[in-house]
Amino acid sequence: MSSTRIKIGLYASVLMAVFVLASYKLYRRNDNRTPQKDEVLVKAMLQALTQAHYQPEKIDDTFSKRVFDLYLKRLDSSKKFLLQSDVDQLRKYQNDIDNEVLRGTHEFLDVSTQIMDQRVKDVQALYHDILSKPFDFTTDETFETEPDKSTFAANAAAQREEWRKFLKYQTMVRVSELMDEQAKKKDKPLASTSAQPSVATTSEPVRTPAQMEEEARKRVMKYFDAYFKDLQQNDANDRLATYANTIANTYDPHTEYFAPRDKETFDQAMTGRFEGIGASLQEKDGQIKVSDIIPGSASYRQGELKAGDIIIRVAQGAAEPVSVEGLRLDKAVSMIKGKKGTEVRLTVKKPDASTKVISIIRDVVVLEETFAQSATINDNGKKIGYIKLPTFYADFNDNGGRSSAADVKKELEKLKQENVQGVVLDLRFNGGGSLQDAVEMAGLFVDSGPVVQVRGGQGAASILNDRDPRVQYSGPLVLLVNKYSASASEILAAAMQDYKRGVIMGSASTYGKGTVQRIFDLDDAMPAEFNNIKPFGSLKLTTQKFYRINGGSTQFKGVVPDIILPDAYSYLDQGEKESDYPLKWDEITPARYRVWSGAPSIDKLKQASASRVASSASFKQLSDMVQRMVKRKDDTKVSLKLTNYRAEQQQAKVESDKYEAIQKTAPTLSIAPLSADIRALGTDTIKVNRASRFTKPLKKDITLREAVSVLKDQI
């Protein structure tokens, strides 16, 4: 493990030295003009990307168009501000950004900023005027909610009409919410001090439809007042940071620029995210999107917030919700995080276009729930072991600290003591982590040999090997994966598949992140002459790529399971291939390895599984639900007639609740924590309840049940 870290450290040091030398050469000038910070930043970034990125771009017209397209998309992601004439005016720069960068200018950024600032002022007057008059929710008209299906307004009149519909939609949503609130309060009994049960109802006056419409418009006005106030607080540094990050993102989605402020936020997310709601967020196209739910966190335990959800509004307890649409990520995060025990209410848009208000009580992450846990499943006389691995964790600052590979090894030993006849290793929603732990974990199931290949932009690939000939567990094995299994999870799953060591089961493919990133502090690479305009921030860039031992990359395509099952998340556009400018799949020379001598008969197991799934009522209901979700997701127009809208929302709620209903009707698995683990917890009821909570959602897990059946086919 230490040798791997030394190699990486030397690589980064040598690279930084090259970058520093190149920087001196880059900034040697023939005139006496002092370069401005924006010029230095962009040139320094491009120098680093050229020297260090896995796949550096040529600074040419193709590069220019990529930057133009992505920045335009982010400048006005909703297509509510710019007119088509504005876009036409900006388009003359689409092939000149490369030249601007090389000569140290930024006309495109300046002109786009000027135009956008003017349009923001225009629209600010527009929405005040529109919201001053009542809306009629009985007329038949629709609103397109998906910007990708919209076009920029042809003129000011078309823009006003688009905003009228948009504001009517926003108001209608709040009217519907007020109707729901009133319906809940209507029959709520008042507290009674008498011994007899109270039958009284709340005395709060019932609002008329007109009063609700007026109140909803006031809320929308307040919502947009705050939104536009934030828009106008963006300064030149904010715009420069957005522009620099756009340039970085055109290399690949994991290459990013962090302004000094954003780097601090990133560091806190990596090291101090143990208090709050426990969700990793990302800003994409003006939206705050949930990218990951941290195991053991408040969101993880509450269960309703999911990766892929878009956060629209945030409320502190019972306070009025505040919009986070269009906000910078750091500002949105500051509104969402908070002290343990406080409530935050998130209004989220689900991938199927339905909206939901989710109440979460902020808490600290329960570390025990982030570690590997095991259980046993008894099914018709067969005993199966189950291991849940939420992440590939390791304490890089303490050689004696916990590591996922060592913990899984211990869990396997305990399961062997239980005389299990097969093991399920659950990597669903495991976003990765320690590469070395993935390598060591593969070694628990196979003899010594290669596990993964790592290649930089130049030269041959290096092979990471398991050097321990011992096999911790040699029995039947199933690895469960889904679309959110990424990075180290994909490395382990790919190695087991290539060795034919076990059966990979799950959704159509894993996430497809097969790249390695490094973070460089730009200040460290700058000549001393620029000390007066520091800090510059940091650059996270892709420097290496993972390859399977069979030669294929895990990048873009991910890992395709041996047995593909219907999956509740299969309708989501999630994964590396759905991101902007991902690196493509390719292959290199395979490593030399021997297939596992007791390889399972995949074709027979696949055929038997397909037969069971086809006859399963639960899987059929799930497949039908997914098809309906796909249809809903693609139907992005909403009715602006209140009765129709409420009917659509009710139908969406019915559909979103069906997955839970399917699980409830599924046969119950007999799964329980290891008795030895329960005994070890003694009389600590909190820890005992936590151990029991781990297995509760698994009892109705139809995917896990099918994994057990596949293992039983091998016993």
UniProtKB/TrEMBL annotation:
The PDZ domain is annotated at 263-337
SUPFAM superfamilies in alphabetical order: ClpP/crotonase, PDZ domain-like
The record's PROSITE patterns line, in alphabetical order, gives: PDZ
- Cite the GO molecular-function annotations of the record: endopeptidase activity; serine-type peptidase activity
Q: Which domain of life is it from?
A: Bacteria
- For the region Disordered, give the residue spans: 180-212
Q: Which residues form the signal peptide?
A: none
Query: Its GO biological process terms?
Result: proteolysis; signal transduction
Checking Pfam families in the record gives: DUF3340, PDZ, Peptidase_S41, TSP_NTD
Gene3D superfamilies registered for this protein in UniProt: 2-enoyl-CoA Hydratase, Chain A, domain 1 (3.90.226.10), 2.30.42.10
Can you supply one Gene Ontology CC term for this chain's record?
outer membrane-bounded periplasmic space
Q: Where is the composition biased (Polar residues)?
A: 191-205
Alphabetic keyword roster? Hydrolase, Membrane, Protease, Serine protease, Transmembrane, Transmembrane helix
**InterPro entries per the UniProt record, alphabetical:** ClpP/crotonase-like_dom_sf (IPR029045), PDZ (IPR001478), PDZ_sf (IPR036034), Peptidase_S41A (IPR004447), Tail-specific_protease (IPR005151), Tail_Prtase_C (IPR020992), TSP_N (IPR040573)
Q: Which residues span the membrane?
A: 6-27
For this chain, the family text in UniProt reads: Belongs to the peptidase S41A family.
- NCBIfam families annotated for this entry? prc
What name does this protein carry? Carboxyl-terminal processing protease
From which source organism is this entry? Hymenobacter mucosus
